[in-house]
Amino acid sequence: MSDEVKRGLEDVLVAESELSCIDGDAGELVYRGYSIEDLAQKASYEEVVYLLWHGRLPTGDELQSFTDAMIEERTINTGVYEQIERLAAADESPMAALRTIVSTLSAYDPDADAEVIDHEANARKARRIAAKLPTALAALQRCREGNDPVTPRSDLDHAANFLYMLNGSEPDPVLAETFDMALVLHADHGLNASTFSAKVTASTLSDLHCAITTAVGTLSGSLHGGANANVMRMLKEVHASDADAVTWIEDALESGRRVPGFGHRVYNVKDPRARILGERSKELAEAAGEMCWYNYSITIEEYIDDHKGLAPNVDFYSASTYYQMGIPIDIYTPIFAMARTAGWIAHTFEQYDENRLIRPRARYVGNEDATFKSVEKR
Ligand SMILES: CC(=O)SCCNC(=O)CCNC(=O)[C@H](O)C(C)(C)COP(=O)(O)OP(=O)(O)OC[C@H]1O[C@@H](n2cnc3c(N)ncnc32)[C@H](O)[C@@H]1OP(=O)(O)O
Ligand SMILES: O=C([O-])CC(=O)C(=O)O
């Protein structure tokens, strides 16, 4: 038994997975062998979800019936709406609300009492969670803004339907396609912290809703998915300050600030997802004739590369992309969760298929010879 403490579990192998492969030195990401560049450009989110859950890309017929089955599950129960209204009224943050919403979905899931490892029931639960989360998130955001929820449409794909439910109007095709691509890019990423937490939860043989609730909580932190909203808040700080972007980032680094959207546990070079989103952010800026958000981002990227040798991760350019699409900053991380649900579910299924309780050890460094005194004598 090794007594070496691996803080942060860096480079520790704890599982085998067929889902996604990251080459951190080359800056490459593949899902089940397909490059992220190909999938981002050519595959819909629904195709990628099918790929992750079923092990291969669907045929046309398979895609149609999978999509139809997901569409059928888009509506959410009145009880879930009432919970959403309560959460919005309590001014709960969207990520905390989403965590509660996943739990609440369990209360209304017809398969809630199925055996934990019942493949058929889990496939149905998976479709329900993935299909209902966008409806719930859009409803939450509309409630937070004092608007009525919008009923999902069955003639729009997953991405376009979310934007429709969020804004109450059919999205521009370029924005719908951009959003679909962003969902594809966020669908899976090896054993990142939230996926690992889902596997830990599943390894105790608790159910799919438990695993996804755990994962939402883990994604919310500022070192993980929470960074995308912080990137946009930072860009807005730069915009509001009197300093130019170089002076601003110089001061921020000097004051010891950790810059959101930079650095990664696995990538030693630019995250390939940041490359793709950066290009899209630029295209949106050019189309709108407003380059400031993209220009701040580029300036900060160059400065941090020169002075810290750190490259942007996925959260850096999703921020300006979403902002230019008019998406409220508070729901950037919930959108990440909505997309990553595909990967969390796929990894939970892999965990169930090869389950062993995940239980590492901590080296005890506390007091070893304490003498107990009764409370009156302390
Ligand atoms: C979807 C995702 O989860 S992607 C990651 C999203 N998170 C962020 O963008 C938050 C900012 N980034 C970070 O905090 C980190 O880079 C992490 C958490 C992503 C990776 O952390 P780790 O692999 O544990 O690296 P660690 O935190 O030890 O950093 C190594 C060194 O780089 C520095 N560093 C890393 N990232 C940053 C950053 N964003 N800004 C400034 N310095 C940084 C650290 O200060 C540290 O320097 P030191 O050794 O002199 O103290
Ligand atoms: O892999 C990680 O550690 C974080 C990340 O980029 C992701 O979850 O997409």
UniProtKB/TrEMBL annotation:
Active site: 264, 315
Statement: the UniProt record of this protein carries the keyword Transferase: yes
Pfam annotation, one family: Citrate_synt
A molecular-function term among this protein's GO annotations: citrate synthase activity
Top-level taxon of origin: Archaea
Keyword Transferase: yes
InterPro entries: 2-MeCitrate/Citrate_synth_II, Cit_synth_Halo_CitZ, Citrate_synth-like_lrg_a-sub, Citrate_synth-like_sm_a-sub, Citrate_synthase, Citrate_synthase_bac-typ, Citrate_synthase_sf
Catalysed reaction, written as an equation: oxaloacetate + acetyl-CoA + H2O = citrate + CoA + H(+)
EC number: 2.3.3.16
GO biological process: carbohydrate metabolic process; tricarboxylic acid cycle
GO cellular component: cytosol
Keyword annotations of the record: Acyltransferase, Transferase, Tricarboxylic acid cycle
Annotated PANTHER family: CITRATE SYNTHASE, CITRATE SYNTHASE, PEROXISOMAL
Family note: Belongs to the citrate synthase family.
NCBIfam families reported in the protein's UniProt record: Cit_synth_Halo_CitZ, cit_synth_II
Protein name listed in UniProt: Citrate synthase
Organism in which the protein naturally occurs: Haloquadratum walsbyi (strain DSM 16790 / HBSQ001)
